[in-house]
Write a structure and sequence with these properties.
binds 2'-deoxycytidine-5'-monophosphate, alpha/beta, five-stranded antiparallel sheet, Rossmann fold, 3 domains, five-stranded parallel sheet
């Protein structure tokens, strides 16, 4: 078996631009995947010829017995760029294509919860990219409310101002570069205790989650409150020490300095506030899969999450 990837460098919306082939005996295309620029996916699986002819039909295209061209032959045409890939690489694309096909027929929701700094943001981004889903970091919505109050020099316990700010939050305009500041996160944790503010934001988050093809949402109450019916719930955690060490490394990597003990105290305080509040406290949903990243690199966490999700999808497909 041979595996080939072909990039067809054209501007045509009606033709696939990224193609993956599984080729048997240098001749037949066993499986073919076609990705189009608009995100749609085409599949072909070889079926037996029934009329005794040399040509086989796969997914509507003729699979000639003249054989699949060599990679060099394909590359001699400037419009194409081809390379041999591994079986694992093909399988990864196949899974991605299957997941996309599922999304066309049914919504997929992945809920990720956990404390600050556990790696859920990176994981959410990787999963949204892999399964081609929309992505919402719900922490940014609470940060946007806090930021609005700070901008207007209003106290963080001004509930009616916080409600107004929450109503004005536009999910399409959340600017991570301003909202990611540490002080904004601290302030967000404070405005997040108000039930009315939460209700306004949760309504927007739910609308986002139910927009096709579905979404990965990460936060504190996604599996418990925002999307209690999510197809997959992950609770990503890590010890406070590990999270503090990661935060320190992050600060130092951009040339900053900070005190480990202070960062750790900050994290512990934020955990207490997020887990201890009366409305929608941070906790794993009863049916969440736990992922402890204390001793796990992000790639390992991604693979573990993928295994959980693919398993759920396989069962859902059979149902
Ligand atoms: O994930 P983050 O650091 O951006 O979140 C900032 C604060 O927002 C967090 O300390 C608590 C609050 N938050 C929340 O209460 N519920 C969510 N779903 C997401 C964040």
């Amino acid at each position: 078996m041979k595996y080939v990837y072909v990039h067809w460098k054209h501007e045509k919306a009606e033709e696939p631009s990224h193609l993956w082939y599984e080729i048997a005996d240098d001749k037949f295309q066993n499986r073919t995947i076609e990705f189009y620029a608009d995100g749609s996916v085409g599949f072909a699986v070889r079926s037996e010829a029934t009329d005794g002819s040399d040509d086989l039909e796969i997914g509507g295209t003729t699979n000639s017995t003249e054989g699949f061209p060599d990679v060099e032959e394909i590359n001699s045409d400037k419009e194409f760029e081809a390379l041999e890939i591994t079986a694992a690489e093909f399988d990864q694309q196949w899974r991605k294509a299957l997941a996309s096909r599922r999304h066309m027929t049914r919504l997929l929701t992945i809920a990720i919860d956990g404390p600050a700094g556990a790696g859920k943001g990176t994981l959410a981004r990787r999963l949204a990219d892999h399964y081609r889903l929309n992505l919402l970091d719900t922490g940014l919505t609470y940060r946007a409310v806090a930021y609005a109050l700070i901008q207007h020099a209003l106290p963080l316990d001004n509930v009616s101002a916080a409600e107004t700010a929450a109503r004005q939050v536009d999910l399409a305009k959340l600017d991570r570069s301003v909202l990611s500041a540490h002080a904004v996160g601290e302030a967000a944790s404070k405005v997040a205790v108000f039930p009315t503010v939460r209700r306004i934001l949760v309504e927007k988050q739910r609308a986002f989650a139910t927009t096709p093809p579905g979404a990965v949402l990460d936060g504190r109450d996604i599996g418990t409150v925002v999307c209690p019916d999510a197809d997959i719930k992950l609770y990503v955690t890590a010890s406070a020490e590990v999270r503090a060490r990661r935060r320190l490394a992050e600060i130092e990597s951009i040339g900053g300095t900070a005190d480990f003990t202070e960062i750790l105290a900050d994290i512990v305080r934020r955990d207490e506030r997020d887990m201890g509040r009366a409305d929608s406290p941070l906790k794993p949903a009863a049916d969440a899969h736990l992922l402890d990243t204390s001793e796990m690199a992000i790639e390992a966490a991604f693979l573990a999450a993928m295994a959980i999700i693919d398993d759920v999808l396989a069962k859902r497909d059979k149902a």
